[in-house]
UniProtKB/TrEMBL annotation:
Lineage start: Bacteria, Bacillati, Actinomycetota, Actinomycetes, Kitasatosporales
InterPro entries, sorted: Aromatic_Lyase (IPR001106), Fumarase/histidase_N (IPR024083), L-Aspartase-like (IPR008948), Phe/His_NH3-lyase_AS (IPR022313)
Alphabetical keyword list: Lyase
Pfam families: Lyase_aromatic (PF00221)
PANTHER family: HISTIDINE AMMONIA-LYASE
Record-linked PROSITE patterns: PAL_HISTIDASE (PS00488)
Organism: Streptomyces katrae
Keyword Lyase attributed: yes
Protein name: Aromatic amino acid ammonia-lyase
SUPFAM superfamilies linked to this entry: L-aspartase-like
Signal peptide residue numbers: none
Amino acid sequence: MTQTPIATDSGDLDMPGLDAIVEAASWTAKLGPLTDADVARMHESGAVVDGYLAEGKPVYGLTQGFGPLVTHSAKSEMEQGNSLISHLGTAQGRPVDPEASRLVFWLRLNSMRKGFSAVSPEFWQQLADLWNAGFTPVIPRDGTVSASGDLQPLAHVALACAGHGEAWVRDERGAWTVRPAAEALAGLNAQPLVWPVREALAFVNGTGVGLAVSILNQRSALRLVRAVATLTARLTVLLGGNSEHYEEGVGLARGQVGQLETARWIRADLPRDHRRDERRPLQEPYSLRCAPQVLGASLDQLRAAGEFLLREANGVTDNPITFEGRVLHAGNFHAMPVGFASEQTGLAMHMAAYLAERQLALVVSPTTNGDLPIMLTPRAGRGAGLAGVQISATSFISRIRQLVTPASLTTLPTNGWNQDHVPMALNSANGVGEALELGWLAVGSLALGAAQLAVMTGREDTTGVWAELAAISPALEADRPMAGEVRAAAALLRDHAETLLRDAA
């Protein structure tokens, strides 16, 4: 269900949550026309800038050059607009996904309609018409320091709208291919846009690319935490572990919200008649016993990151802005809030993925799996069972740690004397996105451990998600390549976690 935007004190319309934003920016969604209030705000903002120009007052990007060239005068708005998006067209690397690209475009349009950016309603509508028609620029993901916003990647969006660069084209089956932007525009019977400098500044001076990728990362990380909670319950059932670890009283005594919620998730997946197998220890190893404490802490951090990202998505992040009759030159485009939220997401996700890897280690060792065969192979010696799966999972966690190392620790000054403090927010978001891919593979690896553990303990289910998992990874009668099974199990758990979270909402 589409959520209704909520009004803030300033009269702007804000989205109530990240899920609502992602839904509003989806392929099937459409941007509605500007309201009378939108148009009035936008005209008022433009009039403030016009007044400054009429009085001969300096305005960044209009009367002055860009960045360190602000000390030099400029003459032509149209020349400046083309110059801005052209000289910033230097991003490189693999493109962000089409879903992220559409969210980037939507976020910039949402910001520009709020009446702080001196954007003309007519030009805004041209951009919105392109977005509604499905125009989806290819956005190279590398090459910004995220300080004056994500200048280079956003310039590639603007360039694509002007017929330069590339765009994604979606066929009737939903498959995406890359085409020259001019060809994609022609396929939509759309003309390339010419960017005036006011609109070009408002568009590229924003945090939208790192923000979009971070929003999608945060949502994926939430689902990963939910999936590991589900697998924790499954292992507890199969091993006959002590469910006291997940009692509500434990969480109430401590008072941590995330711990209470993740323990509730685990309890919900345990049979009502579950009892500890007397052969199991009173206290399980920490990877099972402390799952609510670990997953709960991750959940709390992810939700806090989501709040920061939601504020940013509902805010205005370009420069200069107009406010109460004045042009204000400042730095809302500095993406430090996005950078910290991204790093928080990566660190929290890593702990959940690491917990999954530790649980996999528990189920493949006779010391902790109840004296079942090592690596859960029925042919010890002749067969190696899940040995390869576990080694790869260990590698995934090591690589995750490299990728989620805070990018803010790697900042460098640039742009002459101008950008002397930068956040590297998109670099962070890109790293966290890659880490999430590996995190889900760690979840898939643990899921295979759960599938083989069910075979070994004779507790296979014939319905539901565990029956689907058993079909993906049947009994290991002989060793076989399991890379595809890991990917399929990861996809199954991702979809299952998304369903659980959606139903709970």
